[in-house]
Amino acid sequence: MKRLIPLLVLAVALSGCTVRFDSRVEVDADESGTFALEISLDEEFREIAAESGGTSEFGLTEGLEDVPAGWNVSEFTDGEFEGFRIAAPFDDFADLDRRLAELAATADADSPAPVFIETSGLTRDGDRFVFNSQLTGLEDGLTDLGGDSGDFTLEGLDPATLFSQIFQIRFVVTLPGTIGSNNADSVDGNTLVWDIGFDDEGRNLEAVSDIGGGGGLPIVLILGLVLAAAIIGFVLYRANRRRRRPEPVWMGGATTSLTSTTSEDLGADPFARAADTAGGSGGDTQVVD
Asked: What is the enclosing helix (H) or strand (E) of 179?
């Protein structure tokens, strides 16, 4: 990793090259999870390394043999970035802090990557997961990363300019449940991302999540929807009944409406009209002398 600085100077002169450092914490609902450091170079950086007689890793593999026991080292690709991932599982938050402490102890010797937090800052209160961690050692970590620059020098280069043009440092945390208040730079589902700048020493990273389903709000919404559906159904039912008209009633082959009948409808002799109606519906009528 100490061979990286000469290439950084060259990359600054050419501009556009990026070295990415990601610290990732993935937390499950039972407080277990995985912590990982990812160190990678973009395609342009790897091409410069190859043209200068190096390899595409160009120093990234140095120090990997010093990774503490229980940590796994693997290659990975993320879009145009290629590099190495150093990861370890943890059983709970206390175990995660122990993992970070042993990695920090390695950093004092010849770490493959700087560690920018001292503790995870993760706690749990019932269904609420709280992440509150402070960045530390940014400047020292980058200096340790460079080591001896040999025949190259950083004299005249503004550290902030070097940082912004070369390094892309991110802290990525995935929490269970529903993400609540946070100060992350971006949120994608359950994953929060903080973009770390050169002047972010001492910055607090904060986030809260809840695995309790958000309290009673969903139940209230469901009851409200059911009630609204019932009201709409009742209104439609009443409106449909009002649109219905009386059906005609069949009486002995004659159609009789259920509307009111006036004396004019029966004619001058209502009894005769009734007799005619009865004769028409009952067949032949026999007259007895």
From this structure: strand 178-182
**How many angstroms separate the CA atoms of 39 and 52, rounded?**
20
Report the DSSP pairing between strands 72-78 and 178-182.
unpaired
Residue the block writes with tokens 């390094």? 167
> Over the stretch 220-261, which tens digit does the pLDDT of each residue have?
566 677 777 778 877 777 777 766 655 555 555 554 544 444
* 3-class DSSP assignment, residue 98: helix
* β partners of residue 79: none
Q: Which whole-number Å values give the CA distances from 288 to 77, 258, 281, 285, in the listed order?
A: 114, 36, 20, 10
- Cα separation, 275 vs 79, in Å, equals 99
Rounded Cα distance between 273 and 266, Å, is: 6
Q: Domain ranges for the chain, please list them.
A: 4-210
Copy the structure tokens of residue 161. Answer: 């300019």
